[in-house]
Amino acid sequence: MVSGWGECSARKPGSRAILWRPRPLPLPRRHRRTKTDRIDGETLIRALMVWKRGEPRACSMVKLLSPDEEDIRRLGRERKTLIAERVFHVNRIKGLLFTQGIREYEPLRRDRRRRLDEARTGDGRMLSKHPKAEISRELDRLELLLTQIKAVEAERDAPFRCHPIPGFLGDPRASTGRSP
Q1: At what angle do helices 67-99 and 129-162 cross, to 10 degrees?
Q2: How far apart are CA 180 and CA 167, in angstroms?
Q3: Side-chain half-sphere of 43: how many Cα atoms within 13 Å?
Q4: Which helix (H) or strand (E) is 20 found in, with range?
Q5: For the whole model, what pTM was predicted?
Q6: CA distance between the termini of the chain
Q7: Does position 52 have pLDDT exceeding 50, yes or no?
């Protein structure tokens, strides 16, 4: 039995490891108990025995992923992180422009640089030098993120381009309407 996320060290050919996260175990709420490793160990063993008896709601077990499966999931996690950073930079650019009275600017458009050069403040002036330089640097960061997102998505979608699923968007026959 492995407690926490130390399953990599416990994984050996022919062995069975159970990944255990003790946090969701029910504890009595009437009075505070001192929390020691001995009490936690007893609680873990008790919950494992209940689970082995077949009670479905005693706890849930997590399937350990192989290194290849973990690699595939890592791409999704990286994409999620990059998307969150993209949202942060888009909101920052919009906030900086909003302080200057510019409301109809979309940083994700392809003509974002040209539109920044043409942007007028709320009172009709051109955007001044320092805010424009700051927003330009934010756009540099945003464009770097966009290229990284495209690279991660291309890596994620590569297996489907090699072996398209009939009838789906990755299938070249899907756009022409031809059947096999």
Answers
A1: 150
A2: 10
A3: 18
A4: strand 19-20
A5: 0.62
A6: 51
A7: yes
